[in-house]
Amino acid sequence: MNRYVDQYIRSEEEQARASMVEQLAARFAKRAAQHDREGSFPFENFADLRESGYLKLTVPQEYGGEEISLYELVLLQERLAYGDGSTALAVGWHIGQVLHLRTTGKWPQEVFADVCRSIVQDGTMINTFASEAASGSPSRGGQPETIAVSEEGGWRITGRKTYSTLSPILDRFVVSAYIPEEECTSDFLIRRNERVSVVETWDTLGMRATGSHDVVLDGVLTGTGMRLSGKGTDDGGGWLLHIPACYMGIAMAARDFALEFARSYRPNNLGEPIASLPSVQHTIGEMEIELRTARSFLYAAADRWDREKDERPSLRPELGLAKYAVTNNAVKVVDLAMRIVGGASLSRKLPLERYYRDVRAGLHNPPMDNTVLHTLANAAIQEQPRKV
């Protein structure tokens, strides 16, 4: 019988990569509970990702990467999260942003090329640190309190960033900073040095192993050429589909755990597994509707983004809808899976309670629900009415 998870695989090449990632996910799943309990960063997972070539998947081929599509990124991220949601979400910021930079050209070419070569040769990773305690998420439009001051040889940057995923392992990263003399905000590429410190503040309900600590910059100097223009083409934010792909992977793991439980659990008052009970089958059916509907949105959005290159800015409502549907439906799927398993699902000896905590984090990743609803409403209002 064909596995439902393989429904969206389109080629032998995609199957080969998917199989490789499933092996990684199985390895990560064995470590996930300990890292979740300790709130520790899974350095060994990232060593495995580096060794497997995962970190270079979205790097352009001209720099030695695989240059995979957004569709395949979604396919692989979903599978990686099946094993460990924290690792998948964390590495998703890296491979997603490389894809974003590849398709938009928003960085100076020589800077992007240097980073790409370092990813391929040394396993370098990147992320952008933009959130702050006072200004909140950058998607809300707050002005950063991190300040960049021009001086001879470059820019002196001082500030503190929150939710800095991958901070324990990165040797370079991007920060957004306000430039008082120009009254504007810009991005800067920073190399980690003695003026960069990580304050271990990340102690949360879910996604406990992403290393999303605070990063403090104490007058860090970065070169003149490390101010990133932010120009380039508008890609509609397609790369952010790495986020719902992660939460769909967690939901798939919860679904499969519940199905295996239903097939095997036989109470002593029942002569066959609980999967035979109409009430359990009804809940499984509800779980499948939520899961399959969300997955269809996710893969359709990724496929359109890949194919319709000139229309990417106009796809923003569809991309937002995919994120909204997946994250909200994933929460429902995990909840339904726990109802099938019953009280045992609350045990920390089983992974369901971790899935339940991790999957809720998707509601707080961009774009947030109210932003998606606002975008969809505006698209509908601005649509030209049909003439009857």
Automatic annotation (TrEMBL):
Occurrences of domain Acyl-CoA dehydrogenase/oxidase C-terminal (ranges): 245-361
Similarity comment text for this entry: Belongs to the acyl-CoA dehydrogenase family.
Gene Ontology molecular function: acyl-CoA dehydrogenase activity; flavin adenine dinucleotide binding
Acyl-CoA dehydrogenase/oxidase N-terminal domain: residues covered: 12-99
Entries under InterPro entries matching the protein: Acyl-CoA_Oxase/DH_mid-dom, Acyl-CoA_Oxase/DH_mid-dom_sf, AcylCo_DH-like_C, AcylCo_DH/oxidase_C, AcylCoA_DH/ox_N, AcylCoA_DH/ox_N_sf, AcylCoA_DH/oxidase_NM_dom_sf
Pfam families in the record: Acyl-CoA_dh_1, Acyl-CoA_dh_M, Acyl-CoA_dh_N
Protein name: Acyl-CoA dehydrogenase YdbM
Cofactors, names only: FAD
CDD domains reported in the protein's UniProt record: ACAD (cd00567)
Organism: Paenibacillus nasutitermitis
The Acyl-CoA oxidase/dehydrogenase middle domain, residue ranges: 130-220
Regions annotated as coiled coil: none
UniProt keyword list: FAD, Flavoprotein, Oxidoreductase
Gene3D superfamilies the UniProt entry points to: Acyl-CoA dehydrogenase/oxidase, N-terminal domain, Butyryl-CoA Dehydrogenase, subunit A, domain 2, Butyryl-CoA Dehydrogenase, subunit A, domain 3
Underlying gene: ydbM
